[in-house]
Amino acid sequence: MAKKVIMPxxxxxxxxxxxxxxxxxxxxxxxxxxxxxxxATDKVNMEVEAxxxxxxxxxxxxxxxxxxxxxxxxYLGETGEEVPExxxxxxxxxxxxxEEGEKITAQVSAPSAEEAPPEEVATEExxxxxxxxxxxxxxxxxxxxxxxxxxxxxRIVKEDVEQAYRERQKLSVEEVPAPGRARLPQSRMRxxxxxxxxxxxxxxxxFFLTQExxxxxxxxxxxxxxxxxxxxxxxxxxYTDIIVKLVARALEEFPLMxxxxxxxxxxxxxxxxxxxxxxxxxxxxxxxxxxxxxxSLAQISEEISQLAEKARAGKLSPEEISGGTFTxxxxxxxxxxxxxxxxxxxxxxxxxxxxxxxxxxYNGREIVPDxxxxxxxxxxxxxxxxxxxxxxxxxxxxLIENPISVII
Length: 408
Known about the structure:
The protein is α+β, with helices and mostly antiparallel strands and about 400 residues long. It has 3 domains: about 5-85, CATH 2.40.50.100; about 90-185, E3-binding domain (Dihydrolipoamide Transferase, Irregular), CATH 4.10.320; about 190-405, Chloramphenicol acetyltransferase-like domain (Chloramphenicol Acetyltransferase). The chain is built from 10 helices and 19 strands. The strands form 5 sheets. Strands 9, 12, 15, 16, 17, 18 and 19 form a 7-stranded mixed β-sheet that branches. Helix 1 crosses helix 3 and helix 3 runs parallel beside helix 4 (about 160-170).
């Protein structure tokens, strides 16, 4: 019997996924665990593996298609085996249309005063299109009358709308009507980042504390640890690795900074899970170092390196980007001195790390050039007050000025 391949649920908030590309074609032989297709969710890209060995009998959706979770996307089985008639691609589309049909039809036939005039709606109604195709066209802001249908009798179906949307996305700068003003579509990741950051600043009253900290001992400690960690892991320990270790210790001391606000109640997280922002070509992603306070510096260094590598290759799993309780964003490697970061929901705070640079520093006897770093804490004022945030920063300052006490 043919084996169903479904769009998996790769996260608690995932409702649909985009098939970036198929890695196999119909007729290919695959083994259990072989990658079948690459899917893009609202957070991460990852490969979906074959649930069993066999032949790829049928692929129901093309590259670029948006598919609801648990929906069948392909079938595996014995060569020549028939795909169940009731589960063919046309039937899958019909199932989706049935769920959306009555609601969409009512909306189209009875528009509100704010929608298109009756004559425009009538024109749209005369276009043969499935209810699901109509919903997608409205979502993508496409005119149904401009889309060629591939269904029976020229009916516009879901795939036709998605193809039209992909073609619009490929619009080159030369085709943009306004000279010198290019309008390029945002990537899915960029749209999600925009949505989450807007949600954060609108729902979380941010306040910011910046502190310049002497980093001379931090620099010396890293230089001493470089050969030791490299010998153990083959990696060069970074300042981010050390700061993650120090922040994890500070969060143990100040559990309020490691909490969530859930439905008006404070939820103290029992584990310190630190997200580390990683820049990508079209955005950023925050893989999470789980139980950071319980791990050695070498373990943290190795894990951050692996997570960053997987992030840039689009190989992170949902588990590796979820469960964060506090985030660190370091732009020091780009020469940035000071910046303010936006809190990553549902967390209550984020630490922005600037570059470590030599500046005039008074050591208690004289002014000398020495290493300094600026750290900026962004905190949610609904839960965190200025005094408690300042105490956290003061404790972290003590750790940075004497990092060896935590690392050993």
